[in-house]
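quick q for whoever's on today - can somebody do inverse folding on this one?? i tried earlier but teh output was garbage lol. tokens:
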């Protein structure tokens, strides 16, 4: 909605940056509340609180959000068939990897569901490209400058970031035996720096090529992963955990803000809602699917559960590899110049 409402320019970058800042702020708050309710009250109070809070937010949006005005495509229809094959393919692929981390790849149904998910993806591509009159994901969007490599780079970065953030919590709680509230306090550095990183990236995309902005976020994750993967099991928080959080704070929001802004500036206005939604999906899907990959690595490298620290280290090595590959893709395959536009292009105004 932000990229459709605001034309290309500094104000769009700032507002998208503010939206991206809600990620680290929400993540930090999300660890505080479970820590509070889980440590000081009965655990189920957390879910009552979340339900009440969600109802308040839902009600507030009815008064805060502006009316739609003129729809971008008033006569449009929903591609239900494409939505089915796309969503089911994504869900099954994610389930396969997360389940394999629990039961192992020896189970036949894991392979079977992996094949089914790939078939759904294949049918989705054929349907969207050959059959659907109004595809839910127009394949032409992939012809936008550097769009495909950018999606791949962002996906790998988000997978690496998700692995890092999950195993940091596991390390602090199970290896170092932090309390729930102390674990939440440890995350505050990530929240503060991540919020600042959103605004920095919103400005940086106006003065630096897109590949540099994205690679910066990926390299930050590489460095943070190396710091965390090499620290001893027991150590003061300030020695390596704190610096890793500080550096990692620049990664997810740098990448998210940059991809949202670059995507919205690279495709036509009529496709910007789709492009923005796709990048949001890539973020959430990468954060969750990466855990399945890392869980598989941990399962087969922790000596049957006897070497938990070793298993976590190997999972963090995967973070380093994924984010390093993301940085390489950004620098080699993405070529989007600095964008200092102010206002819609003529073709975008005509499409609106």
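ok took a stab at it. sequence:
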């Amino acid at each position: 909605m932000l990229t459709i409402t605001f034309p290309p320019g500094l104000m769009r970058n700032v507002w998208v940056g503010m939206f991206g800042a809600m990620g680290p702020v929400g993540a930090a708050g999300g660890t505080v509340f479970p820590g509070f309710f889980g440590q000081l009250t009965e655990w189920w109070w957390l879910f009552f609180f979340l339900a009440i809070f969600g109802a308040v937010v839902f009600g507030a949006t009815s008064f805060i959000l502006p009316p739609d005005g003129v729809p971008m495509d008033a006569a449009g229809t929903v591609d239900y068939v494409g939505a089915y094959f796309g969503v089911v393919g994504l869900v099954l692929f994610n389930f396969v990897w997360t389940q394999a981390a629990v039961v192992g790849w020896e189970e036949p149904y894991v392979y079977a569901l992996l094949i089914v998910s790939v078939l759904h993806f294949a049918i989705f591509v054929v349907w969207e490209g050959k059959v659907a009159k109004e595809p839910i994901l127009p394949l032409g969007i992939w012809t936008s400058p550097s769009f495909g490599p950018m999606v791949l780079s962002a996906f790998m970065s988000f997978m690496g970031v998700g692995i890092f953030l999950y195993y940091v919590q596991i390390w602090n709680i199970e290896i170092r035996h932090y309390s729930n509230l102390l674990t939440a306090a440890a995350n505050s550095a990530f929240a503060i720096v991540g919020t600042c990183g959103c605004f920095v990236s919103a400005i940086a995309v106006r003065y630096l090529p897109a590949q540099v902005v994205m690679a910066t976020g990926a390299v930050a994750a590489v460095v943070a992963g190396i710091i965390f993967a090499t620290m001893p099991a027991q150590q003061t928080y300030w020695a390596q955990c704190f610096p890793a959080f500080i550096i990692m704070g620049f990664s997810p929001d740098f990448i998210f803000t940059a991809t949202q802004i670059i995507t919205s500036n690279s495709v036509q206005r009529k496709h910007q809602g789709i492009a923005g939604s796709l990048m949001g999906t890539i973020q959430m899907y990468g954060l969750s699917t990466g855990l399945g990959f890392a869980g598989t690595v941990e399962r087969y490298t922790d000596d049957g559960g006897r070497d938990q620290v070793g298993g976590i280290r190997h999972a963090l090595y995967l973070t380093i590899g994924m984010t390093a590959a993301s940085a390489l893709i950004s620098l080699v395959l993405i070529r989007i110049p600095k964008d200092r536009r102010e206002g819609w292009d003529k073709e975008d105004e005509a499409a609106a």
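fwiw The chain has two domains: 7-33+145-352, 79-135. also The mean pLDDT is 86. so keep that in mind when u check it
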